[in-house]
Amino acid sequence: MKHLVFVYGTLLSNGSRPAAEVFGATVLEKGWVIGRLYDLGWYPGYKPEANIDAAVAPKVFGELIEIDSLDRLDAYEGYPALYDRQKVWVHTPTDLHEAWIYIYNHEVGADMRIPSGSWSERELA
What we know:
Blueprint: E1 3-7, H1 19-23, E2 26-39, E3 44-48, E4 59-67, H2 71-77, E5 83-91, E6 96-104, H3 119-124
Antiparallel strand pairs: 1-4, 2-3, 2-4, 5-6
């Protein structure tokens, strides 16, 4: 069974551990989700925003991938202790997709927020 997953940090194509190389995932296309991205040091954390109009909502940018199994990915993400896994709507240039995303399970400070919503831009800064 194939699973759609939205990745936004180290698993990006230009991340430190690309999902295609590490997990044999297929990168489908770039996209974004509603929420906020936080700098946790070596990796980011995503927190959703509920009931916000997509036109004005904060966005987190990443990639939609397809993967055969979630088992190794769950272990990598520290699910369920470090991250929870939930379904979200991913906006892409071609469509709207329902996919899994890993949500950081712990508190974050406002000073940890990545305003651009892009881990890649944060890494270049």
